[in-house]
Amino acid sequence: MSLSIQQVTKKFGSFTAVDKLSITIEPGEMFGFLGANGAGKTTTFRMVLGLLDPTAGEITWNGSIIDYATSGEIGYLPEERGLYPKMKVKDQIVYLARLRGMDKKDILKELSKWLEKFNIPQYLDKKVEELSKGNQQKIQFISSVIHKPKLLILDEPFSGLDPVNVELLKDAVRELKKNGTTIVFSSHRMEHVEELCESLCIMHHGRPVVHGGLKDIKRSFGKKNVVINADFDLTSLQNFNGVTKSKETTEGVLLQVESEKAAEELFHHAAQKGFLRKFELEDPSLNDIFIEKVGTSYE
User: Fold this and answer.
1) What domain range includes position 275?
2) CB 3.0-4.6 Å disulfide test: which of 61, 68, 195, 286 passes with 190?
3) Is residue 122 located within the same domain as residue 199?
4) Under a CB-based contact definition with an 8 Å cutoff, are residues 150 and 182 in contact?
5) Does a structural domain hold residue 273?
6) Is residue 189 part of a domain?
7) Same domain as 93, residue 122
8) Per DSSP, what are the bridge partners of residue 77?
9) Is residue 290 part of a domain?
10) pTM value?
11) Buried b (16+ CB within 10 A) or exposed e, 106-143
């Protein structure tokens, strides 16, 4: 089952939030959306869910327009959290899952599994407001996946989580993908998209500026990063032919070069100056590509 977004535009009055976006997300794929606030990511998600109607274009899931008949196949974790603070965790999840057509017995069985997976079985009868923000986030995540959706949309799923809980959530997302769920998510943390996604779209002012497979995007970017550590002064290398950017590190320099050939020439030049403790050629990071395409760092 693929998610198809074809020539989709969304306008609010004279403001264009999404501008002629065309993307196809294949069954079982994990797809990442990147972009600064206001780039159009959340608006796109809301159109996919049927919460907003496109001004133009068409969105289909498995060839059909998403409506109440197909909404049970979809799970959604919104960026703005929406749990009822006075409700107990158990009552909250049962209520939301019943809306998805689940039986109470099945809900409690699934909920027990998820609470164990997230190391919080003791919170079953706790009020939501009694939980930390991180644990509330886990409960919200459970509410979006308990009905075993075929399409899962996660808007900033890792925000507010400490590193341990980020890894727990990542493992859960990987397992869902392994079991065939199609997953679309946005994140402010590029390393998360880099680590989890095969394909991605970088949006800027409602338009896709980069779109495709992660490996293909990095390959087509052309430029490479070079990490050099040495005991001698590396400052002069920043002006070497083919170096496009430079940054000093605690042990040396991080240079961006325009090609692998430039990196090879840089290596021979640097090796003549003294002993190199480290000379490592790396693919560009998503942050490098974002800065190049959008013109600003994405934090």
Assistant:
1) 223-283
2) 286
3) yes
4) yes
5) yes
6) yes
7) yes
8) 154
9) no
10) 0.85
11) ebbebbeebbeebebeebeeeebeebeebbbbbbbbbb
